[in-house]
Automatic annotation (TrEMBL):
Keyword match Metal-binding: no
Stated name of the protein: FAD-binding oxidoreductase
PROSITE patterns: FAD_PCMH (PS51387)
Residues of the FAD-binding PCMH-type domain: 37-216
Taxonomy, superkingdom: Bacteria
Family: Belongs to the FAD-binding oxidoreductase/transferase type 4 family.
Organism listed in the record: Spectribacter hydrogenoxidans
Family annotation (SUPFAM superfamilies): FAD-binding/transporter-associated domain-like, FAD-linked oxidases, C-terminal domain
Keywords: FAD, Flavoprotein
Length: 473
């Protein structure tokens, strides 16, 4: 389905091994992580250099062929799904760490670097790269930046946007913008990198990035805490931040249902507490400063909580292995939900102060519409981002439950909008939520997005249909 001569031109510029056209060879790149979208590209390109990415984009766009950028292919909203007349450009061969400047606390890496490898490179230099999420062993930096990934450490270190100092980007016309810089201060005009972070490959293809590093952590305290309700969790968050000198790097909320599903379906997982509780907090305090004062801060907050009823029980990890076991409970929730049956997933955010009201109101609203539905709301209480997931009623037909996705999404998103929240907190929009973006963002905001898209990609050749509703070129 490609114009005559395009494959030959791509092979000439990229090499035969970088141009995949067979169905078996392309299959790993066409798999949608959640299985909600069907991808079947005309070809998959695997460039090794930024120059080859530029050649690929230039040749394809000149031929009128759309380009779908792809990094680790671990996205959850169909952001890198291709049609039969489109080409996937995978960055999985661009894995170099170009430089690491320990004195400047920066690392420059290519977009195909796996997140865990960037973390290790920083650790080898005595530094910390704090972006951390469950898929870090397979997701790649280009995708992390294209979706402005969050993860568990946003509370202390910020999203991917806050961790990025500079970018290298291939534009829709094949030009290369070299914006790689390690500067913390640069007010020489527009901050161009911010246009591309979170744009999901619709404005340009990120090929490399200069990222911020931080001092390595010298002490870390992890606790799994039973709490009566989300309101108590929000109060405890404030107390942990105050007592630790704002060194609370993660604060995760889990309902009892989530823990039960994980213990039921994930081998080796068990309830770390003796008695069940309606809600739990997984809290981590960490600092690069030596000492054990964070342990004292943690104990002090827990002691106060036990006295005033905001804490009913807690366990503190005594080793890195124990801490990892507690984190495994949190990170295994999506898999456990999938094994339990039909699951509808919603990635939302509201102001932290409104989390308790949101959980109550949204939970009641979906329960009225879908009797017996099980709400599994978990996530990053520290930054207001919840994965407000729904598990099918026990014994119900899974397919029938999944068929109510639009209805459930509209109910939840209406509550989100009423609380000045976002219908896409950290997973992005992709091809799953353009209609929701159109519905819940202001018309002025959507017009501005379209204007930027028109300016940088006037022929709609970069990831068409992602983020903004599809329009024919």
């Amino acid at each position: 389905m490609l114009p005559e001569g395009l494959i030959d031109a791509l092979i000439e510029h990229l090499g035969a091994d970088a141009v995949l056209t067979g169905r078996d060879a392309m299959a790993p790149y066409e798999r949608d992580w959640r299985g909600q979208f069907r991808s079947q590209a005309a070809a998959v390109l695997r460039p090794r250099t930024t120059g080859q990415v530029a050649d690929a984009v230039s040749l394809c766009t000149q031929a009128g062929v759309a380009v779908i950028p792809q990094a680790g292919n671990t996205g959850l909203v169909g952001g890198s799904v291709a049609r039969p007349d489109q080409v996937i450009v995978s960055l999985d061969r661009m894995t170099a760490v170009r430089s690491l400047d320990a004195d400047n606390d920066t690392i420059t890496v290519e977009a195909g670097c796996i997140l865990a490898d960037v973390q290790r490179a920083a650790a080898d230099a005595g530094r910390l790269f704090p972006l951390s999420l469950a898929a870090e062993g397979s997701c790649r930096i280009g995708g992390n930046l294209a979706t402005n990934a969050g993860g568990v450490n946003v509370l202390r270190y910020g999203n991917a946007r806050e961790l990025t100092l500079g970018l290298e980007v291939v534009l829709a016309d094949g030009r290369i913008w070299d914006g790689l810089t390690g500067l913390r201060k640069d007010n020489s005009g527009f901050d161009l990198k911010q246009w591309f972070i979170g744009s999901e490959g619709t404005l340009g293809i990120i090929t490399a990035a200069t990222l911020r590093l931080f001092p390595a952590l010298a002490q870390r305290e992890t606790a799994f805490i039973a709490v009566p309700d989300p309101a108590a969790a929000v109060r405890l968050l404030g107390e942990f931040r105050q007592a630790s000198g704002d060194n609370c790097i993660a604060c995760e909320l889990l309902p009892r249902l989530a823990l039960e599903l994980v213990c039921r379906h994930i081998p080796g997982c068990r309830d770390p507490l003796d008695r069940p509780a309606p809600w739990y907090l997984l809290v981590e305090l960490a600092s690069p400063a030596a000492g054990d004062w964070l342990a004292d801060a943690l104990q002090a907050v827990l002691a106060t909580g036990l006295d005033d009823g905001s804490v009913s029980d807690a366990v503190i990890a005594g080793s890195l292995d124990q801490a990892a076991a507690l984190w495994r409970l949190r990170e295994s929730i999506p898999e456990a939900q999938t094994r339990e049956g039909g699951s509808l997933k919603h990635d939302i955010s509201v102001p932290v102060s409104r989390l308790p009201a949101f959980v109550s109101e949204a939970g009641a609203a979906v329960a009225r519409a879908i009797p017996g539905v099980r709400v599994c709301a978990f996530g990053h209480v520290g930054d207001g981002n919840l994965h407000f997931n729904l598990s099918q009623p026990p014994g119900d037909d899974g397919d029938a439950f999944l068929a109510r996705a639009d209805e459930a999404g509209r109910i939840i998103h209406d509550v989100v909008a009423a609380m000045d929240g976002s219908v896409a907190a950290e997973h992005g929009i992709g091809r799953l939520k353009p209609a929701a973006l159109q519905r819940y963002r202001s018309p002025v905001a959507v017009d501005l997005m379209r204007a930027i898209k028109q300016a940088l990609d006037p022929d709609n050749r970069l990831n068409p249909g992602a983020v903004l509703e599809y329009r024919e070129p």
